[in-house]
């Protein structure tokens, strides 16, 4: 049974289409990264899951319950970190956590949750009106963890967090997932998603343009590895050397850059490339591989029009 | 239960507002002023005992009738629209609360805040009364206080109702100000205009029933009627003055003192129902 099941959902505001026939499903126990540039429709999707807004057409189900009719039960079993959530400026951090505990009828220890997200007891005793963005984000995350939720919905969770805070959040996401929670989180920063997600969906202009595992997305890249080989000198017969490298199985392109060669090839061809180059009487001084990051893929998917997609396919 | 949880949280948050502190202080100032005025008046007419309480209440009703709606609307108008504007509503509704529990919780929490303000103001007034007049009828004073809290509740319902129907605090504020202008100024002018249009004069020998009805159905008039009922004094009701001067033939049902409670209930439930309906359907 999927934890989240969105089928053919369209959401229009007047003449503007925020989501266009979106279908998406997240399996139980999965960590799903929901990627896309700002304005792609990520928050709209999350708002539909929580019944903050209603779909124009299509159906949204969470835990196999109707997102509108059974919203209360869904929210009882879900922990939510809304995007850029403002807090109650006259209440303390601890009071926020206590309120979440009381609202859910849970029996968590507020101090434990506050400590877990890395908020100091001193900070928790202060009014939230004076919190920095990062502190507010930690506090909201603490309230999302109340009651051991079956599903965590995190909208841009790393907003305002320093690298330590972001790492702590990733650790907690993994811990929660090991406990059995499904995690659905949106981001426009790929690094966040790449590090923890089982599966990634990329949204653009209200449309899911690809959905795959992180490995699967990598595999779909045409130039999986970029090998840069630095030689002591340019070989005498450089044309023949280039042709020989190009002829190796798995090599897709070779570009000379002064004393270096940039070789786009599959992983398995790397050693063969080095062997062949040395046969032309030169010494390899240095070489580095540059694993094409998902960032390239993300950029290719989300910028430009169809040209971007051509690059990847 | 959920509404109570929201109400408790909301009360804690809203009661710490500095603006409320200022308004409460202002209100207390007016009640002491009212007590001084009542003591001066009772000295003038050498009344005493229970009569002074009635005199004080009469002196207090005017400032309370103006300040309580203002305080309640200021406390209420941002209750929901404000949370929608800042986004904290997504934190609140991300937790398992129904939208109607949020609206009801807000009404309860903010009524609590307004009640605290009224109780402080009237406690100061009571001290003033004891100091200046020396004798009080606690039962009458308590009854007056409770009716005033009910009146505050009605205006909180109006404020929160408006707040639930819009996503902008600016619009909610405009709505709240429009209400005050309508009930405090326009309604009276409108009644005069209607009187002249229908009867052809501003001063008929006897005032028609519809005129009394029209002047009794604002929440402010209903507040006066309700005080008149609990204190058994017709001078607080809008019909009372006409009745005592023989300017009306009979008091219509709607202008009867006890009917003030019915009118107050309608003014509480109507905006609440509209707010619940609008907020329940809205995209946040």
Structure in a nutshell:
The complex is a heterodimer of chains A (313) and B (284). Chain A is of the alpha/beta class and 313 residues long.
Can you offer a commentary on this structure?
The complex is a heterodimer of chains A (313) and B (284). Chain A has two domains: 2-213, Rossmann fold, CATH 3.40.50; 225-291, 2-Layer Sandwich (Alpha-Beta Plaits). Chain A is built from 13 helices and 14 strands. Chain A has helices spanning 42-49, 71-76, 93-104, 110-116, 121-124, 133-144, 163-179, 190-196, 214-219, 238-246, 270-278, 294-302, 306-312, and strands at residues 2-13, 16-27, 31-35, 57-62, 65-66, 78-81, 151-155, 182-187, 199-204, 207-213, 225-231, 251-257, 260-265, 284-291. In chain A, a hairpin with a 2-residue loop joins strand 12 (251-257) and strand 13. In chain A, helix 3 runs parallel beside helix 6 and helix 4 packs across helix 6. Chain A is elongated, with a radius of gyration of 24 Å. The model of chain A is unreliable at 304-313 (pLDDT under 50). Chain B is mostly helical and 284 residues long. Chain B has helices at residues 2-14, 18-45, 50-76, 81-86, 88-94, 99-132, 138-164, 169-199, 209-216, 219-231, 238-244, 259-281. Chain B starts with a helix and ends with a helix.
């Amino acid at each position: 049974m999927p934890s989240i099941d969105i089928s053919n959902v369209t959401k229009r505001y007047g003449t503007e289409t925020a989501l266009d026939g979106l279908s998406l499903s997240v399996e139980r126990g999965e960590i799903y990264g929901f990627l896309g540039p700002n304005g792609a429709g990520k928050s709209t999707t999350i708002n539909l899951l929580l019944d903050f807004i209603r779909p124009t057409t299509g159906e949204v189900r969470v835990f196999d319950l109707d997102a509108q009719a059974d919203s209360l039960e869904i929210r009882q079993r879900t922990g939510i970190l809304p995007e850029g959530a403002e807090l109650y400026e006259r209440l303390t951090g601890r009071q926020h956590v206590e309120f979440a505990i009381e609202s859910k009828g849970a029996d968590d220890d507020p101090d434990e949750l506050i400590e877990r997200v890395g908020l100091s007891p001193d900070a928790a005793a202060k009014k939230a009106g004076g919190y920095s963005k990062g502190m507010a984000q930690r506090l909201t995350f603490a309230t999302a963890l109340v009651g051991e939720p079956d599903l965590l919905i995190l909208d841009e969770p790393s907003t305002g967090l320093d690298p330590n805070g972001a790492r702590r959040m990733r650790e907690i996401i993994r811990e929660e997932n090991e406990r059995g929670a499904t995690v659905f989180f949106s981001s426009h920063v790929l690094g966040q998603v790449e590090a923890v997600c089982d599966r990634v969906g990329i949204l653009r202009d209200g449309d899911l343009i690809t959905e795959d595992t992180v490995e699967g997305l990598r595999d779909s890249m045409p130039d999986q590895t970029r090998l840069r080989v630095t030689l002591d000198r340019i070989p005498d017969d450089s044309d023949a050397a280039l042709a020989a490298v190009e002829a190796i199985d798995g090599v897709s392109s070779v570009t000379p850059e002064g004393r270096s060669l940039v070789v786009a090839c599959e992983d398995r061809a790397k050693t063969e490339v080095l062997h062949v180059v040395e046969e032309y009487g030169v010494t390899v001084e240095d070489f580095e591989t540059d694993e094409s990051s998902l960032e390239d893929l993300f950029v290719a998917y989300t910028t430009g029009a169809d040209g971007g997609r051509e690059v990847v396919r | 239960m959920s509404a109570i949880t929201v109400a408790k949280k909301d009360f804690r948050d809203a009661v710490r507002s500095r603006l409320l502190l200022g308004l409460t202080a202002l209100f207390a100032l007016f009640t002491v002023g009212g007590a001084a005025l009542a003591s001066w008046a009772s000295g003038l007419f050498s009344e005493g005992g229970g009569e002074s309480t009635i005199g004080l209440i009469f002196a207090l009703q005017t400032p309370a009738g103006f300040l309580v709606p203002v305080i309640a609307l200021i406390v209420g108008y941002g209750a929901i629209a404000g949370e929608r504007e800042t986004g904290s509503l997504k934190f609140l509704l991300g937790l398992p609360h129904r939208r109607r529990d949020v609206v009801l919780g807000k009404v309860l929490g903010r009524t609590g805040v307004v009640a605290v303000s009224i109780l402080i103001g009237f406690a100061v007034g009571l001290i003033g009364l004891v100091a200046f007049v020396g004798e009080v009828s606690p039962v009458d004073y308590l009854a007056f206080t409770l009716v005033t809290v009910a009146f505050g509740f009605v205006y909180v319902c109006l404020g929160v109702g408006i707040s639930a129907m819009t996503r902008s605090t600016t619009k909610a504020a405009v709505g709240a100000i429009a209400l005050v202008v309508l009930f405090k100024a326009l309604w009276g002018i409108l009644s005069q205009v209607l009187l002249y249009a229908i009867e052809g004069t501003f001063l008929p020998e006897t005032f028609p029933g519809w005129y009394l009805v029209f002047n009794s159905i604002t929440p402010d008039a209903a507040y006066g009627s309700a005080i008149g009922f609990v204190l058994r004094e017709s001078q607080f009701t809008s019909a009372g003055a006409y009745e005592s001067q023989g300017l009306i033939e009979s008091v219509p049902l709607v202008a009867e003192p006890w009917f003030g409670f019915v009118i107050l209930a309608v003014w509480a439930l109507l905006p609440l129902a509209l707010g619940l309906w609008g907020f329940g359907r809205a995209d946040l």
